Amino acid sequence: MTLMETDTRSKIQLPSSLLQATEPIQALLETASLYLHIPFCHTRCHYCDFNTFAGRLPLREPYVRALLQEIEMAGSMARHENGHRRRSRTIFLGGGTPSLLTVDQITRLLQACFQSFAVDDNAEITMEANPGTLNQEQLIGIRKAGINRLSMGAQSFDAQLLKTLGRIHTPEEIVQAVQHARTAGFTSINIDFMFGLPDQTMQHWQETLKRALELRPEHLSLYSLIVEEGTPFHDWVNEGSIIPGDEDLCADMYEYADELLRQAGYVNYEISNWSLPGYHSRHNLTYWQNLPYIGMGTGAASSFAGRRFSNEREPTEYIKMIKAHRLPTVESEKVGPEQAMSETAFLGLRTAMGLHLPTFEERFGIPFSRFVGDRLQPVEEAGLLEHEDGWLRLSARGRLLGNEVFVRLLPD
Ligand code: SF4
């Protein structure tokens, strides 16, 4: 059984704030969500393949200076023809470990975003943080600087599993970090946990979820372990020294979590994400709705003005490029209308709410039925899709066999 196979609900209960577009699509297409990448960590976790570097902490200040310059360059590039600054609804500081920056560095980065972009007064401004890298004073400082949502990488409440993962924090530090964040005034907190870990039993998972719910975070992201090439975990799995959880156990863990979180009032609005009503991640919805975003910093990706582009990944090289007043873009491709339509449909169908067909037509100027032709007919006939009030989404059976649907949406 795969993860998708566990999801057998026939109807999805979603808060109306998610189902209804909050703004016309044409207005949303004129905005750009901002992502700032901070590529530093104390040590590399054993499963991590993100673009992040251990042992480079002295580079933090030169890196922040380069990032400030890139924010200014990106702001100019994204300005409207009339010279007005581009509107931003969300900012996300990700990594790496952004909580390794000082309050002053974070404040300067946010100020630069506020100067170069027209950031909404009620923008969602998230920072990723790792327990063990946060103290009360720092949390008060970043809240004051404008961060209003924290996303914490906790991964497990089991001390031994944290060691296996190569995490630097203890279970107690997770609790402490959340308590400090509450005291500092954070009312929107996400916590990430992982399942399918080597030697993780169902009992470990139940205990982790129980302790997570005691903290009552507004949002939870639950990911199954993916063993990526080039990581210590990959080598250890190949050697046979660790064995990740099998598919059946992962499916049971997912199902258990989904049921427990639903009973606790959370909504599963995307396969790996649950939130209390109104606390879904607006930034992540930008990606799933295929709306424009501008990524800055090493390796950051952007999707803006009909192009997709990404930055130099290595910090020293990135800093050099910025110092030479060069844009740090290393890859760029044009996204034509066919591709944009395919991707919008594909990403929409991966979410619990599905694809809103009137919005698709308003965005691309043609009905979804004309774009897709008869390509979806076999999967419609097989009952993999369902329609409801203008929404097209995977049926319970479709969630088991999502790839059958997705491949039909790819451009020829
Ligand atoms: S803290 Fe996060 S980004 Fe850093 S090494 Fe661990 S998993 Fe990777």
From TrEMBL:
Its cofactor is [4Fe-4S] cluster. It comes from the Bacteria. Residues 26-270 form the Radical SAM core domain. CDD domains: Radical_SAM (cd01335). [4Fe-4S] cluster binds at residues 41, 45, 48. Its EC number is 1.3.98.3. One of its GO terms (biological process) is protoporphyrinogen IX biosynthetic process. S-adenosyl-L-methionine 2 binds at residues 96-97, 155, 167, 192. NCBIfam families: hemN_rel. This is Coproporphyrinogen-III oxidase. It comes from Dictyobacter aurantiacus.
